[in-house]
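[step 3/7] inverse_fold.run input=structure_tokens len=131
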């Protein structure tokens, strides 16, 4: 939660610079010791605007896309953020360093950027499937 809250405050102060720093994989937006701990940000259309792990997905829309089990977790993130402001979602995802599928629990927070737009700031923890 701390990483999401830190990122949300930065987006509120200077969205464009924060997105640039996230996309560059800078600390604190990507943990240098734990590469699986990083920030990613959606707009309210579920388009990725920043991702500290994979800049190639920036600009991609994820509305309706599911995890490998068929769970539309991104849509759940959007729905929860718009309804409650913050929340948690569980899903299955590939770890950025490991080659296995992992359970991932992501915390998200709706925030207002310095540019007047709404964003959903996210970060999560991985746990090996079957563990």
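[step 3/7] decode complete -> sequence:
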């Amino acid at each position: 939660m701390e990483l999401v809250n830190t990122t949300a405050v930065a987006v509120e102060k200077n969205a464009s610079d924060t997105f640039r720093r996230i996309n560059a994989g800078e600390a604190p937006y990507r943990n240098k010791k734990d590469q699986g701990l990083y920030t990613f940000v959606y707009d309210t259309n579920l388009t990725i605007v920043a991702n500290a792990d994979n800049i190639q997905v920036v600009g991609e829309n994820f509305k309706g896309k599911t995890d490998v089990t068929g769970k539309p977790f991104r849509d759940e993130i959007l729905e929860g953020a718009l309804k409650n402001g913050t929340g948690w979602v569980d899903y299955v995802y590939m770890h950025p360093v490991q080659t296995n599928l992992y359970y991932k629990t992501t915390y998200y927070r709706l925030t207002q950027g310095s540019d007047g737009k709404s964003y959903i700031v996210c970060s999560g923890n991985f746990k090996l499937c079957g563990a």
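[step 4/7] annotate
Residues 2 and 123 are 9 Å apart (CA to CA).
The longest helix spans residues 2-13.
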